[in-house]
Each structure stands twice: as C-alpha cells, then as structure tokens.
User: What shape does this take?
Amino acid sequence: MFKKFKYLLKKKGDRVEGLPSTTFSLKSGAGFTMIELLVAISVFSIIIAVVSGIFITSLRSHRTSLALISANSDAQLVLEQMTRMIRKGEDFGADTIVGDGSGDMPQFKCLRFHYGSGGNNHIVYRWDRHKTFLERSVGNDYRECDADEGFYGMVSENLRVEFANFRVDYSDIYYPRITILLRVGTKNTQISSDKIPFTNLQVSVSPRGDSRY
Assistant: This one.
C-alpha cells in the first residue's frame, strides 16, 4: 500500500504534487538587517534634531521681533506725548546728574520747561539709569532732577530705556530746538539680557509759543 501511495504522488524537486507547499526560502531578501535598522534610526534622529533646532531658533527670533516691535511702539507713543507738550512749552533747560560713583556715567538726565499758565505747570522729564525708565514730574515748581519722590512712570513695564539724552539749543533768531534721544529695548524676561536688540530713536522739536519771541 505504501508503494502505491508513493507512486501516486510524484516528486518534483523539493515540492510534492498534491500537497500544499510548506517550505520558504530565507534568501528571498525580505526585511532589514540589524545594521540597516540602526543606520535608519540614526539618520532619522539627526534629521529630527536639525529640524527641531531650526524651529526653535525661528520661534525665538519671532518672539524677539514681536517684543522689539511692541517696545518701539511704546517708545513712539511716549515721544509723541512729549513733543506735544514741548510744542506748547517755554523756558527750557536740560540737566545731567552724576552722583552714584559711576564715573562719567550719568545717573539722571532731565528736561524741564514751563507749560501753559496757572498752577501745576512746571514739567520735568527724567531718565533714570538704574531703573532704565522714563519718568515725569508736574507741579507748581520745578522738582530737582535727583529727587526721591514726585516722579511717575511714563512708559509701559515692557519698555526698557537703556539710555536717554535731552539737548536744548537756543538761537538768537529761531525758536529753541529740543532734541530727545532714546535707546530702547524690551524687558521681556524670556529674552536673554545679552541678546536684547536695541533701537535708537531721535526727535527734534521746537516750541510754538515761547514767550521771549
């Protein structure tokens, strides 16, 4: 009986007709070797690291740009307010106070003038180097440039005034010319202090109603 069954099923190589094939070859090339997988993972990791670095750098640059735009906008608003008052002022003077042991570096710079008529018409604008801030005083008389009280902030908490200068140029023919120079940046705590970009702003204005003309 065994011989009869043997002749009914004819062998052809490794396969036997009449039975399903249960053999497969390990030499077909399907799948990846361990070395190929390690190389692929390494390349993918490098690409992810490069793309992430570019994204983080772009995000920081965008954040810095927005902070600088906001600071410049605040500074422009302050300058507009100051020039509006200066155009109606008279008896201008500028002061520089050096008294904190910092050598030639000023501690305060002030611009003082008389505005309008009546009481509370003596105005002093002051830059405080330690606060990196612009302040204003309004009263019946000029407040001292280095006074501890009586000055109030003019700018938003986001604005850093790194430097300010007030200059008054008088002429025998023309109205006096007042020049204001500001070096502004941002106080955004998410930006490193050594990477804060600064912008120099300058405006010159002459009063329209100085009583001496």
In short: The longest helix spans residues 34-86. The chain has two helices and ten strands. The chain has one domain: 51-205.
